[in-house]
Amino acid sequence: MKISVAMCTYNGEKYIKKQIESILNQTRAIDEIVICDDGSNDKTIEIIEQFQLENPKLISLQKNEVNLGSNKNFEKAISICDGDYIFLSDQDDIWKKDKVKKIIQYFYENESLEAIFTNGELINDKNEKFTEISLWDSVSFMEDQLKNLNDLYLHLIFKSNMVTGATLCIKKEIKNLILPFPDIKNLHHDEWIAVIIASRKKIGYLKEDLISYRLHSEQQIGTKLRIKKNRLKNNHLIIDHILGNSIPKSYVDHRRLAKAYYNNYLKFKKFSNNQKNDSHFLFKEISELNLELFKKCNFSLKKANPVFYIFTNIIDKIRGKRQLHKQQTV
């Protein structure tokens, strides 16, 4: 069995040393690290080449002649990897020492799985954990509400992508299913992989924090986390409704749910119209399902409070939102 790491870099001199060291110091050794650099003009290449001198048979460095962007760079890195299991890696996180060991063990215990993702802690520029909010909290992954892999799939396609690529490991045999990544605006490689594999009911997860996921100071950390905290309760209710664990009772509940369905209808419709992969039917199916659920939810809105329904519909028309003949988002 061979284990690969697909890492993408771009001007990562500040943090990449810590990341590569954490990968090299795993309790379950890595067999190859494929690094695709997207045109760094800082000391990133110099740092990588020093690691290459120390680990000549382990690290492969590919220098892109032109900047490919994150999606296509990861596509290239994954395509080059030769391992039976391929771990995706950003340039600025830190892996826990037993990350590889625990994920590979979970694959052994669940042979049908094709991809596994994990939780993580959030760290700052100084490598310090600075909040009790987890990575899953920050992406609104309500794991405690899931009962099975079908619920995981519903969570993914109806609410949000909660699979962070930096925590993801995939099996070699799914490369032909996920590559090439379609060139669609705002579609990230991890969401593409997650939707494809979740639709096959073959994606799993580990609750443990197996990486330290870095948030940079320039990301206005405090503001973003404060917003996430305020949204957690609402997101929890939406997921609860989507999974059928509760029934929307108020007008506000129906309204939030309708927004979620409509946004997903637009998103997957765009994916379906633009992507050229064999999985074209998947996005079209998801889009149409979200549209039907939006229409049902919209009908429930009218029943719940006819006056508010008329008023909000007028406001939506003025703003050009949730109009089925247009392509605006909420």
TrEMBL record:
Residues 4-112 form the Glycosyltransferase 2-like domain. Coiled coil: none annotated. Signal peptide: none annotated. Pfam families: Glycos_transf_2. This is Glycosyltransferase family 2 protein.
